[in-house]
Design brief:
heterodimer; A: 89 residues; mainly alpha; 4 helices; globular; B: 460 residues; alpha/beta; Rossmann fold; GMP Synthetase, Chain A, domain 3; nine-stranded mixed sheet; six-stranded mixed sheet; 31% helix
Chain lengths: 89, 460
């Protein structure tokens, strides 16, 4: 599946920040689940991702319950959220 | 000293989330209405995510005289383990739960009882110094329901009294400006001992409020601190979270106190944060078996709380006793007595490891790894050092190690899944079948280096 520029950047960021040594950015499909199943990330990773996103994009993730769960669902949803925040910010 | 639960002024705020706050009387009310729903079950799993809901369920179970089981994590695997091992147990939750094969009580369905006074009276009248089991805590990083720790009503209450007193010394109210009140902001869940002790039990006995809204991401923690002057924020957190908050440029100047536990806090980081907050940085030391037992201010030495007696046994281990502990507790850390009479932590019993402050037995994790069908032999390592992610050495004929991780996912807490799996021909076991950890680490490092060289040519 083709990745957008943001999705590609994020895939590289995830591999780097989370030390996913057996995974390359190319392995992360945009629609795969990041958390349950898929990459199988956990809450420790969620924190690392939030910090990396704030450092790289100056966008600050917050837990708005259902909304944050859906933002974190996949590479695609996270990238879409970032693009949307950049456009409005 | 309080001799019953929820010993606070009725209209004092206990939990705060955004603009909403729950007073002691509201908490008592809610606990009473939930207790009314617990008649048909001998024991409950407290599966609530919201801290206010979690505390209400905890008090409801106390009222009903039934034990509250606290699982080490969320997820179907944990619930299935409980279902297999514990009879006549219901899951009490504050959100939607898919069919788990166990009776589920959703507290959203419990109507709040009007007339709060009755509920407060019944909690006050509850026998406080009882040997009855109030909570069952599981500490293992594997999903098998092993090593349950039974916490009696009396032990939890005395622990809460001790901790409430210690919190007062941290806050040091005499030094606070008159205006404003103390708000504890926890970044830890209520179902682990640390969060249970300090953000669920202490607020039942102490005149502090606890933030129960979102307080995980640094942005949310910052928002929870409220307005300077009105609130004196006391962060209840871990070294792992503090490192993330530093990286996220968290405004520590707005915090009054920081409490850290679950793993050693780097002394330089402790000192740097201690200089930035208006109060101080305090580290708590404890274990699931004994609860919190010692504390130190940044730059100082740990001191055991007054209630604990300690001695060193013939194996050089620290043995703790206290009136509220049903048996002596042997600490898994080795300590060194400092010139000021306090102590520092110098090492941990080899089998116990921590990842981001969560504890597990390496032996149990290794058993779980070895029970994966495609793993002929294997062991877990911590190449990055204490509190870092795990890696694994594995002897297997399968090409794709991802399948091994998938299989392991059903057996261990995701925190302890290896981030890197290194395939080897065999583990360096000696004649008695034991593997030297140091040798295994060397093997891992040399295999990883070799693999990196090999991949370096292949990656585009």
């Amino acid at each position: 599946m083709e990745k957008t520029a943001t999705e590609q950047q994020l895939a590289e960021m995830l591999v780097d920040v989370l030390n996913l040594e057996d995974v390359t950015p190319g392995d992360i499909e945009p629609e795969d689940n990041l958390f349950e199943g898929g990459l199988g990330l956990d809450s420790i990773d969620a924190l690392e991702i939030a910090v990396a996103v704030s450092q790289n994009y100056d966008i600050h993730l917050k837990a708005e319950d259902e909304e944050t769960r859906s933002v974190f669902r996949s590479l695609r949803s996270l990238a879409a959220f970032i693009d949307e925040q950049k456009a409005s910010g | 000293m309080p001799d019953h639960w929820l010993n606070r002024q009725a209209e004092s705020p206990v939990f705060v989330a955004g603009e909403v706050c729950a007073t002691a009387s509201a908490l008592a009310s809610r606990a009473g209405s939930i207790a009314a729903q617990l008649g048909g079950t001998a024991r409950v799993v407290n599966y609530c995510e919201d801290r206010y809901a979690f505390t209400a369920v905890f008090l409801a179970a106390l009222l009903k005289g039934i034990p509250c089981y606290l699982l080490p994590g969320r997820g179907d695997a944990y619930l299935q383990s409980i279902r297999a091992a514990v009879p006549d147990i219901s899951v009490v939750t504050d959100s939607e739960l898919d069919d788990v094969g166990l009776p589920v009580i959703n507290i959203a369905d419990c109507e709040t009882i009007r007339g709060a006074d009755d509920s407060i009276v019944s909690i006050e009248a509850m026998q406080a110094d009882s040997d009855r089991i109030a909570a069952v805590v599981f500490t293992s990083g594997t999903t098998g329901v092993s090593k349950p720790l039974n916490k009696s009503v009396a032990a939890l209450l005395q622990g809460a009294r001790i901790n409430a007193g210690i919190l007062e010394t941290f806050i040091n109210r005499a030094q606070l400006p008159d205006s404003g009140h103390v708000r504890v902001i926890p970044t830890v869940p209520p179902w682990h001992m640390y969060g249970l002790e300090w953000s669920v039990l202490v607020p039942c006995l102490s005149d502090i409020e606890v933030y129960s809204g979102a307080s995980f991401f640094p942005e949310d923690v910052a928002a929870a601190m409220g307005e300077p002057g009105e609130i004196h924020p006391c962060l209840l957190t871990t070294p792992h979270h503090l490192r993330a908050m530093v990286a996220a440029a968290f405004p520590f100047e707005r915090a009054h106190t920081i409490i850290s536990a679950t793993a050693p806090l780097d002394p330089d980081l402790a000192a740097a944060l201690d200089a930035r907050v208006s109060g101080g940085v305090f580290e708590i030391y404890g274990c699931s078996e004994a609860g919190s037992v010692a504390a130190r201010r940044a730059g100082g030495s740990f001191r055991f709380f007054d209630d604990f007696d300690w001695r060193i046994n013939n194996n050089g281990e620290v043995v703790l006793t206290a009136g509220h502990l049903s048996e002596p507790v042997v600490l898994s850390d080795t300590i060194k007595i400092e010139p000021d009479g306090g102590f520092s932590i110098v090492g941990r019993q080899q089998d116990l490891i921590k990842v981001a402050g969560k504890r597990a037995s390496l032996a149990e994790l290794n058993l779980a790894l070895q029970s994966v069908a495609s793993v002929q032999d294997g062991m877990l390592l911590q190449p990055g050092g204490d509190d870092q992610r795990l890696a694994a050495l594995v002897v297997t004929s399968v090409d794709d190690v991802a399948a091994i991780i998938e299989d392991l996912r059903a057996r261990v807490d995701p925190t302890f899944l290896p981030r890197r799996i290194c395939k080897v021909a065999k583990l360096p076991r000696n004649d008695t079948g034991k593997v030297s950890y140091a040798e295994a680490l060397r093997l891992f490092e040399s295999e990883s280096a070799a693999a990196a060289v090999k991949d370096g040519g292949a990656t585009s």
